[in-house]
Structure formats: C-alpha cells, structure tokens
Write a structure and sequence with these properties.
With about 240 residues, the chain is mostly helical. The protein contains 13 helices and no strands. α6 packs antiparallel against α7. The longest helix is centred in the last third of the chain and has 16 residues.
Length: about 240
C-alpha cells in the first residue's frame, strides 16, 4: 500500500506476492481490490477484471464484493465484453439488493438492453431502478418511457414521462426532456390536445434548440393530420456511476 501511495508501480507486484503467499488472509480481498484498481488506473483492464473476479469467487459475501462486481461490469464493457458486464451487474443486483450500487448497475444493464433494442428487458430493468427512488430515478424513468413508446404502450410511456415532469425542477433540462417524451406519448395515443399543449410549452420555454425545432415540426403536423409516430430527440444524459462515470 505504501508503494502504491508513493506512485511506485512495484506496489501491484508486492500485493500480488502477498496474495500468492497468504491466500487465506483476511486482507486478501482488500489486496485484490487495491491491485485491481492499480491495474485499471494503468490501463490494464483485463488484469483488473481478473483480480475483481477472483475476489468475488473467493469471498462472495465480503463487503468489497459489490464494488468488485460493479467495477468488473464497467471494465468488462471497456474490454468489449457486454455479456460479462451484464452478468456481473445481474449478480450484484441479485445478491446485494441493499447495496447503493444496485441503482447504477440496474441502469447500466437497462442501457445495454437499449443498445440491443431489447425494449421489454430494458423497460423492466429501468423500472426496477426507478422504483428504488434513488439518484438514478429520472434517468431510469426516461428509459422506461422510451422503451414503452417503442413497445407501443403509450399510456405506460406517458405515465413514466409525466413522473419525470412532476419530479424535475420546473424549466430545467430534465423537465423538458420529460415533457418531450410526454408530448410524444400523447401524440402517439389519442390525446392530441394534450400533445399540442406540451409541444407549445417546449417551444416557449426550452433552451435546447434541437428540442425546440422538433416541437415546432410536430406542431406543424397538426395542420395536416394524421400525425406521425415521431419520437423526441434522444437525451444525451448518461447514467451516473456507469461507464467509468
């Protein structure tokens, strides 16, 4: 540890020597976590994942296991191994439901499903995160809404987006992201007047020029019905705690 704190690269080798020579020591999980982060900091993600996986295999109920699983998922994703990432996050969510990392892991899992256009599992994973009512809730609700829209479950999408609008600070970027989703949900459904009101509020209040242009374009279609099923511009917001963030 002193070598690592002093920025000396041999610290990792010393830790790994300790692990090899005293594999039953109570300090081995901590040593593996330290070695893993040192490897990750140096760009050796494969070695970092190996240390984290070894930690979980040897001490599956250790207090460091949730962190090891979460970081295994993050680093596996960087290595282009999304299946391994999903497996690590699934184990974390199943075995450590009280961990504060469950929300970030669930949202990251939902994002993986979103990338694969697997809308039903994306919706389920995102809804489970939203139900935790943690810091990831609004991101999760936006993904619930997007997934429900893709599944043509417009009332469910509208409910999720409405929750974002209600819970966000009025006039904030997140508020208008929720309002855009709500407008699209109402537009795709039967409440065209509600959609028009939402589009107008975006035009009048949003500071996002792309969102304003989209809302104006959607309003123009009401002059020449029937309306098209056009989703709002995708939010650029990223999940907290995922992808190294």
């Amino acid at each position: 540890m002193a070598q690592l704190e002093a920025g000396r690269p041999e610290g990792v080798r010393t830790l790994e020597q300790f692990i090899a020579q005293a594999p039953t020591s109570d300090l081995v999980p901590q040593a593996r976590a330290l070695a893993a982060e040192a490897h990750a900091k140096a760009g050796r993600n494969r070695e970092a994942v190996e240390q984290y996986q070894a930690l979980v295999r040897a001490a599956p109920t250790h207090a460091l296991a949730p962190q090891a699983l979460y970081r295994s998922g993050e680093l596996s994703l960087k290595l282009g191994r999304p299946t391994d990432a999903e497996a690590a996050w699934t184990t974390l969510r199943r075995d450590f439901p009280q961990s504060p990392l469950v929300g970030p892991a669930g949202l990251a899992t939902a994002r993986l499903h979103e990338q694969r256009k697997q809308w039903e599992p994306a919706l389920q994973a995102a809804q489970s995160v939203a139900d935790l009512r943690g810091e990831e809730r609004s991101d999760a609700l936006l993904l619930v809404g997007q997934s429900a829209l893709q599944l043509r479950r417009n009332p469910e999408a509208a409910q999720a987006y409405h929750a974002v609008v209600v819970e966000a600070a009025p006039g904030s970027k997140r508020y208008f992201e929720g309002l855009a989703g709500l407008a699209a949900s109402l537009d795709a459904g039967t409440d065209r007047e509600g959609a028009k009101r939402a589009y107008r509020e975006i035009v009048d209040g949003s500071q996002d020029p792309d969102l304003v242009r989209w809302a104006k374009a959607r309003l123009s279609t009401f002059e020449t019905p029937p309306p098209r099923d056009t989703p709002p511009p995708k939010s650029k917001a990223k999940p907290k705690g995922a992808g190294g963030g």
